Amino acid sequence: xxxxxxxxxxxxxxxxxxxxxxxxxxxxxxxxxxxxxxxxxxxxxxxxxxxxxxxxxxxxxxxxxxxxxxxxxxxxxxxxxxxxxxxxxxxxxxxxxxxxxxxxxxxxxxxxxxxxxxxxxxxxxxxxxxxxxxxxxxxxxxxxxxxxxxxxxxxxxxxxxxxxxxxxxxxxxxxxxxxxxxxxxxxxxxxxxxxxxxxxxxxxxxxxxxxxxxxxxxxxxxxxxxxxxxxxxxxxxxxxxxxxxxxxxxxxxxxxxxxxxxxxxxxxxxxxxxxxxxxxxxxxxxxxxxxxxxxxxxxxxxxx
Amino acid sequence: xxxxxxxxxxxxxxxxxxxxxxxxxxxxxxxxxxxxxxxxxxxxxxxxxxxxxxxxxxxxxxxxxxxxxxxxxxxxxxxxxxxxxxxxxxxxxxxxxxxxxxxxxxxxxxxxxxxxxxxxxxxxxxxxxxxxxxxxxxxxxxxxxxxxxxxxxxxxxxxxxxxxxxxxxxxxxxxxxxxxxxxxxxxxxxxxxxxxxxxxxxxxxxxxxxxxxxxxxxxxxxxxxxxxxxxxxxxxxxxxxxxxxxxxxxxx
Lengths: 304, 252
Fold this sequence. Notes:
The complex is a heterodimer of chains A (304) and B (252). Helices cover 62% and strands 9% of the residues of chain A. By secondary structure, chain A is an alpha+beta fold. Chain A has 2 domains: 24-52 and 185-301, no CATH class; 64-168, Alpha-Beta Plaits. In chain A, helix 1 (32-67) packs antiparallel against helix 6 (164-205), helix 6 (164-205) runs parallel beside helix 9 (280-301) and helix 8 packs antiparallel against helix 9. Chain B is an alpha/beta fold and 252 residues long. In chain B, the strands form 2 sheets. A 6-stranded mixed sheet of chain B has the order 7-8-9-4-10-11, sandwiched between helices. In chain B, strands 1-3-2-5-6 form a 5-stranded antiparallel sheet, with helices on one face. At the A-B interface, helix 7 of A face helix 2 and helix 3 of B.
């Protein structure tokens, strides 16, 4: 047994018993390079696809965070403490349709936000404005106008920030991120397809003599082409499965180790995304089958 | 020798040589060459203007020096090449008029022993021999027993599972002969079939071909072994200087 046996990418020859042996061998050492190339390309394409799904989810998340929240800056009216004004604002805003939760940030919270900019000394003497943080119904968020109207009705002076200013930019950035991820995934998939087709063509030239023997023995072109189609479909499926399995493993590790604190907030990969690579072996098989068929027919066309 | 008497020929330089004109109906020729020339790519013609016919059930040797075109002539019959001029007819049909899908069934009626053997390296002895049967549309029942018997007959009964690479040159040649005859083709073309075997096996192979010929198979054996050709007493087609000569009584 070779010490490098673990590098054996040969297609396993399953299910041989009983039937006559196939006219083309299921396993052949010459296939190893092709299997390796197809597996690696499938692996890369699958990882990119998973990353694209993650990027898509991340872009959705950015928007949802903005859509789902708003903040209100409250200024106390005459003869009223900041806290009292904020409390009234919170009460008024909580009743508005499309607001799921309203929470007042007390002086401590507000100071914590400002301390890095102003320093603790200055803050002690300043009238610190109060913030009310709102969580909105994502299906039907309350608009800035509705919130402003509610504040006016309650007689509170306040400024509503519904993130509209940022929203446009974030939507644009999200669209760019999605497009880039999709373009990368498509580009890599197309490259993988082209290289698989090319490598299959190259692999089939090794079978030229066998093609000629079969041809001269009176095998029909279609019959010979089918032999190669089936063989290289099997090979593509096996190599594609290897690549897809590796991609799933890597993505699963990423998802597990990333956890909630790690990398996943940047590229939130869901467990369901790991199902995407399952289609890869079928695609690799179809490409391999088609390329094999075309090359075999091309080879036969050169024989009278 | 009546079955061989119908041979007709007229080739480039053959006018002064013995010849005989067709005593059998032209339609009964399984192989007919009509002013056939052949060249590879832009090279000069290997032979030109060959005209002859092989009647059904005939047995001929094809002789000639190395490079005279024996293999090229056979390759026109087993349809590996097309003539550069003239026409080839097989089984009464002009090859040039046939579509690609009609050629494959004709190839299945022709068993070939290639000079360079051409076994499928990845198939064992048994699978190599049974290839024509698996490609045939009317594979007989019990073909596995036929193959095993034929393997025994060529002395390879115990090597059925051996790959060609593990066999000797002579063993591979016997395997190639078994493959050529296993499906009982209408024509057997053997290109130097006794090149790598000992005299005893050589005699055995010739006896097999003669026996198949008696059952109606048309046989052409290309050989440059004068002992084999002279000893058989079979008619000879001789290729020389681009033309063909017919010796109906063989050569002595």
